[in-house]
Amino acid sequence: MELLVFGASGKTGRQVVEQALSRHHVVRAFVRQPAKLALDHPNLSTVRGDLEDATAIQRALAGQPTVISCLGAPSPVRRYPAFTDGIQCILAALRETPGTRFIYQSFLGVPGGRHQLRFPFKQLVQIVLRGAIADHTANEARIRASGLAWTIVRAPKLTTGPARAHYRTGEHIQATNRFPTMPRADVAAFMLDEAERNEFVKRTPAILP
What we know:
The protein is built from 7 helices and 10 strands. The protein has helices at residues 11-22, 34-37, 54-61, 81-94, 121-128, 130-144, 184-197, and strands at residues 2-6, 26-31, 44-48, 66-69, 101-107, 149-155, 157-159, 168-170, 181-183, 206-208. Helix content is 36%, strand content 22%. The model has no long low-confidence stretch (mean pLDDT 94). The protein is globular. The protein has one domain (2-208): Rossmann fold. By secondary structure, it is α/β, with parallel strands linked by helices.
C-alpha cells in the first residue's frame, strides 16, 4: 500500500511512518523540516512544504490512494488557525483526487465523542483542552461535508509509552476509567489497520483501553 502522512515528524505521525514501513508499505511524508523526521528507508520519501502551500500539498497527494493526518496544534489551550486552514487546504486538494481515503486523528473530547468519556474527564477537557477541541470540531465538520471516503479516529489523552497492542475500537464503546490514555503507538497501529481494512469508512470510531 502507498500512503501519504501529514504531521509525519510529530510524535504520532512518526509512529505511523515507522509502523507503515515495518508493514512494507510505501510512505510519503509531508514535513516542514525533513531533518526532523531523520529516517532513512528505501520505501520512504519526503515532500517539504507548509500547510498553507496548496501547491506543495497537491504535489504530495499525486498518486497517493491513502492519506493519514496526524496534525495538531502546538498548544491544546489556544486555537491554531494554521491547523484548521491546513486541513481545509488538504480537503480541497483531496477533492481533486477522487477515491483517495482520508484518515484523520481527532480527539475524543469533541462534542460528538464526549459521551464516551466518564466524569470528571469529560468536564475537565472542555476547560483545559478547549483550543484543541474547537480546532478538531471545526475540522471534523469540514471532513464530514467533504464528500470524501473519510474516517475520523477519536483518541483520548496520548502517551509516548510502548504499545499495549490490546485496545477497543468503535463508535459506541465507553471509557472504563476516569482518565483514559492511549499510547501513540497503538493509535498509529489502528489508523494503519483502518487504511488496510476500510472498516470504518465515513464513521468516527474511538480507540480506548
